[in-house]
Amino acid sequence: MELWPWLTAALLLLLLLVQLSRSARFYAKITLYCALCVSASTVAAVVCLLRHHGRTVENMRIIKWFVVKFKYVFGLRFEIKGLQKLEVDHPCVIISNHQSILDMMGLMEALPERCVQIAKRELIFLGPVGLIMYLGGIFFINRQHSRTAMTVMADVGERMVRDNLKVWIYPEGTRNDNGDLLPFKKGAFYLAIQTQVPIIPVIYSSFSSFYNPKTKLFTSGTIKVEVLDAVPTRGLTVADVPKLMDTCHQAMRTTFLRVSKTPQENGATAGPGSQPAQ
Predict the structure, then answer these.
(1) What is the DSSP string of the chain?
(2) Per-residue pLDDT reduced to its tens digit, 127-168
């Protein structure tokens, strides 16, 4: 029995569903995104191993080259203000808001030289994606064991000063699409004070006008990105962590709410909209 007619019919049915159903379009795009992540990670891992023969921050250039192409597939644009503030030649802690699985594209758009991220340990087991993260020098932290996490953060502090690294952290600690910022966790601020390096906040506007898993929305759109002035930590101690957290949170929240009100490319208005900040 010939399979081609059945395969053709199934493909046509799938295309019809994607055209008619918003949910089908959403899941089709998410599937495509995951497939791109796996395939790009596989190819990038081979290139990294051939080029640098193992784990090094220099591999982030290769990873970035692949990921910044994703935006063309999904019709996304990034408008970045203040990008030069990240191009410093000394260690720093970069903090940004965390909204969805699409954040990786935004991160790579703004990623400066010699910058690595801190990620949860579970991600290292994601096949080619985990492998490419490891090869890129990303630090993995077990958030379930605070003592182990503190040891990793201490090692990160030593490495960033010794190797002149920038470290990118999501201080909210988890994805958040509620139209506001979650309270920050202390890790990024302890790290900055421990190493006496500045903190540079980066804010991404709300994705809600083009990406919303609850309503199965995934269209094209524009993401506004704003890099704020560095916040110095020289001379601060652990006792200053709460005030430092509050200063950064207020500045980032104010900027997030402002840039998220900017009309987006698809005609909708990004940001909290009917979801006022609590």
Answers:
(1) --SHHHHHHHHHHHHHHHHH-HHHHHHHHHHHHHHHHHHHHHHHHHHHHHHHSS--TTHHHHHHHHHTTHHHHHTEEEEEESGGGG--SS-EEEEE---STTHHHHHHHH--TTEEEEEEGGGGGSHHHHHHHHHTT-EEE-TT-HHHHHHHHHHHHHHHHHTT-EEEE-TT-S---SSSPPPPPSHHHHHHHHHT--EEEEEE---TTTEETTTTEE--EEEEEEEPPPB--TT--GGGHHHHHHHHHHHHHHHHHHHTTSBPTTSSB-SSTTS---
(2) 999 999 999 999 998 876 666 667 788 889 999 999 999 999
